[in-house]
Amino acid sequence: MATRSLVQAIHDGLAEEMRADETVMVMGEDVGRAGGVFRVTEGLQQEFGPYRALDTPLAESLIVGAAIGLAANGMKPVAEIQFADFIPPAFDQIVSEAARFRYRSNNAWNCQITVRAPYGHIPGGALYHSQSVEAWFCNVPGLKVVAPTYPADAKGLLKAAIRDPDPVIFFEHKKAYRLLKQEVPENDYTVPLRKAKVHREGTDMTVVSYGVMLHLVLEAAEKLAGEHGIEVEVVEPLTLYPLDKATILESARKTGKFLVVSEANLEGSVSGEIASIVAEEAFEWLDGPVMRLGAPNVPGIPFAKPLMDWYVPDLERIQGKMLELARY
């Protein structure tokens, strides 16, 4: 075991897969010589050379399009989009091409690419460096969308994503990169895709969350237990699409009350899909309305810190929403 941050665990997962399989490569803006803007790929070009840690032009459609071509010729590329906010130029390549390879070829072809993208709010990130865009891809059959929060999960999920024969979008919350460290296995392991994780057992309500919000939810759960005797079960959907419905529904039926917390805009969000699943398939077990907490429906996170703090749910609001549901 080694104590690693999220950014270090993702780096280790990339390096280990590249050492084990010479067809694995990374590509993107500044991923080579500079080691990436967040230093995720630091040292990979020195170890594996400029063609397996490939610096690309500032063109997201080219990055993903070239990755698709490389995959069609036997490589397993990991394409980095420098910020998730910059992914729209690659949307057509991801959705119209990569996601449909297997279906359009009647299962004759696959597209083994992983697209990594840092997402989520950071101070000063504003409209172009702080967005949560995961919902854009969670309505696309043929894709898997992964968003781990903790280092050990992230390393195992990245390895599973790289080995998966079909395209995976791998979101990394940039504020979580160096938020905490955790013991991470140094041996080869994977974490299964399409599985949720129960971080905290509880009996009074279920809260589903991911990203930095998950840390706040867990903190709020401990406060509610200590101050009010309310035991909250906390579930993380490590894979946002397809969702692990079984784990989510089992928890909702167990506790009878259900809340989803994320920092994304509420309308058309992943939280809405999770809430609808529970409302439709666990209604008879519920003792209160399915609730959600998220960002307001404005076009982007404000630049000014007081407005950013208003936009992103904080510990006080999360705890307040839990209490509101508990008292229903």
TrEMBL record:
CDD domains, alphabetically? TPP_PYR_E1-PDHc-beta_like (cd07036)
Keywords noted in UniProt: Oxidoreductase, Thiamine pyrophosphate
Which molecular function terms from Gene Ontology are attached? magnesium ion binding; oxidoreductase activity
User: What residue stretches are annotated with the Transketolase-like pyrimidine-binding domain?
Assistant: 4-179
Cofactor(s) demanded: thiamine diphosphate
SMART domains the UniProt entry points to? Transket_pyr
The source's superkingdom equals Bacteria
Q: Which SUPFAM superfamilies match?
A: Thiamin diphosphate-binding fold (THDP-binding), TK C-terminal domain-like
Family annotation (InterPro entries): THDP-binding, Transketo_C/PFOR_II, Transketolase-like_Pyr-bd, Transketolase_C
**PANTHER family named in the record:** PYRUVATE DEHYDROGENASE E1 COMPONENT BETA SUBUNIT, PYRUVATE DEHYDROGENASE E1 COMPONENT SUBUNIT BETA
Task: Output this protein's name.
Answer: Alpha-ketoacid dehydrogenase subunit beta
